Amino acid sequence: MSPVRKGKGKKGGKQKKTAVADEEKYRKRTLEVETLKQHLVLRRDVARHVMADSEGLKQRLAELERELEEARGDKQDIYEEMIRQFQQLQRQTDTRIQRLESETRSLQEQLAVCQEDVRRSRAEKEKTQEEKEEAIAKMQRKIDGMETEYEKILHGSLDLLLSKLETAKLGWEKEETALHLEYKDRLKEFGLNPLEI
Fold this sequence. Notes:
Elements: H1 9-189
């Protein structure tokens, strides 16, 4: 601050006004300087922050680029691993398909053999059934013939028996009549009436 001189009269009042104006200007200039210094400090801080952020962003960008490269490498590794696993799975599938085709052929052959066995067994069963039915029919015919023969023999025997019984009956009736006549004659000899006895 510039020193203020005290004077007398008009000259002193004029100087006083000039001094006050100068002081006011000085204060304003000082305030402006301080304000500019503060702005400068703030700008310097902002610049430092921006520089620090810029460095951080550069480092982050470098890290991201490194991670991207690693991811690309991992992606390539994953792709190659997937191809390897696919090829391995393809080989396993081909092997399994070949095994299943072989098993299918074997099972089809076994099925054909079994079907032939079933067909042969069925034919043998039908033949056996036919032979059995023929044997049963033959035996039935034989039984029917024997039954007819037995019936004839039975009827012949019964007829013969009846004939013999009839003959015997006639002989018994004659003997009975002869016995009656003999007993009747004897009773008469003793003087008895046979009708009264």
